[in-house]
Amino acid sequence: MNRTRAFLGMLIAIPLIWLFARGMGRDPRDLGPSPLAGREAPGFKLAVFAPGQETLARPAGDTVRLESLKGQVVVLNFWASWCLACRDEHEILSEVARLYVGKPVHFLGVLYNDDAASGNKWIAEMGGQSYPSVLDPGARTAIDYGLYGVPETFFLDANGRVAFKNTGPVTATVLHRVVDSLIAAAAAK
Amino acid sequence: MRVRSVFAAPSLALTLALSLAVAMPRALVAQQAPAAPRDTLVVTPEGLRADAPTKATDPALEARTSAVASGLRCPVCQGLSIQDSPSELAQQMRSLVRDQLAAGKTDEEVRAYFISKYGEWILLEPKASGFNLLVYALPVLLVVGGLGFIITLVRRWTVAPALSDASDASDASDASDASDASDGSDASDRDAADGDENSTT
Questions:
Q1: N or C: lower Cβ tally within 10 Å for chain B?
Q2: Domain spanning B35-126: which CATH class is it, in words?
Q3: Partner-chain contact B89 A142, CB within 8 Å
């Protein structure tokens, strides 16, 4: 009888302990892949407020449509001047974007819950930004991309699909690895 | 001795199971906490006045907006809906809910839009299907099981000591003297008497 009780008790306790242990073992920062992964990237039509530099420059006030970038790999970086972590990745993004000049890659910054004046001031303080940034009024594009916070970087393939999402400051390694593989995939077609 | 046997393995396991069950739904939800950096929790002055009415309000639309917004999780908060959160993103999401409803979308279509962007995580209450059913079923099962357990214990404690001694002896088989047999017969006699009493009242 005691054995039966012990067995029944274990029958209840073991699955619960397993479930609990499984939950504890997961990284709470890991949300898993974005539901957008592999799907067509949400379209947008946003106005440039920070023009970028040299060959990557686009005049302020210009409208960037995602459809017009089809056939290119797009690196979409959501950032804000009030975001501390964005400082960590700013120089890396700017440098890597320069390295890909002449290749079918388009870098674009999207300002998140911030105003153009603060954005431009921040860019000047940080020593400039090689690629243009656009405004996202009402964070509609950010919500369309399922943004949790900044910085977040979305990599869109040449077919306009979301290939990869990086949460937090992006590193040069990730940028090179993802962009190179997407360029190679586009060239292979 | 009797008390010890009552509180043996099953009660220990049930206590453990109950405490785990209380912790589990929270763990299931908490493990999906957003990876948002801390600085997204900064609420800007614009965010604080997002409650200010910006459009001519239609009470029916507002009611639907709050109903839908109450079920959607704020991505930059801890366990708050976009209806309750003062954060800028939550207010922007709420205004998007209002716009989509005003544009003729149904409540379900608006929820589906947010699920397509953030995954089911965006729903404050997980859908009662598949694995999620555990979250709904387990507490009910445990309450029912716990009640049954308590009723069994109370019954055991309230019956005559002779009976419980006898059942204890047969349960645990830790008493092997000859008096067992007579105890047992006594117990069954009392049991029968009890039954008679019950039937007459």
A1: C
A2: mainly alpha
A3: yes
